[in-house]
Amino acid sequence: MTDDRQPTGAAAQGAEPEPQARTGLSITVAIGILLLVLFAIFAVQNTQKLEVEFLAWTFQTSRITMLLVTAAIFVVLDEIVGYLWRRRRRQRKVAKALRKG
User: Fold this and answer.
1) Model pTM greater than 0.85?
2) Cα dist. 15→5, 41, 57, 92 in Å?
3) 43 Cβ contact partners less than 8 Å away, ≥ 6 residues apart
4) Least packed by Cβ within 10 Å: which of 21, 31, 38, 40?
């Protein structure tokens, strides 16, 4: 059986048809859920206390807390360095455009 209906709307005017809405679990969400589950397992298995000495301070914390704090510090540092790098590149690009123009 063939479909003899004529296209209407945007399809009739030569435009590309609208993409179908996706349903279900996307691969990104699935990977995110998997990483969250793995992190939860890691956190439960690493609740031991450890002693941290930093400069004049000494304190105790769980391993997972120390790992999270360390990761957060490095994320912030990465964002700062990335911002400064992009700003420097942007300034060089503007200066180069001004010299040409």
Assistant:
1) no
2) 17, 50, 67, 41
3) 64
4) 21
Which one, of 39, 71, 65, 34, lies nearest residue 52 by Cα? 65
Which has the closest alpha carbon to 64: 83, 49, 86, 79?
49
Distance in angstroms between the alpha carbons of the first and the last residue of the chain: 65
pLDDT for the residue 68: 84
State how far the Cα of 36 lies from the Cα of 30, in Å rounded to an integer.
10
What pLDDT, in 10s, does the model give residues 23-71? 677 888 889 899 889 988 888 887 889 898 889 989 898 888 888 888 8
Question: Could you give the percent of the chain with pLDDT greater than 90?
Answer: 24
Quote the tokens at residue 65: 């807390």
Hey, which residues does 51 pair with through a beta bridge?
60
The two structure tokens encoding residue 29: 């969400």
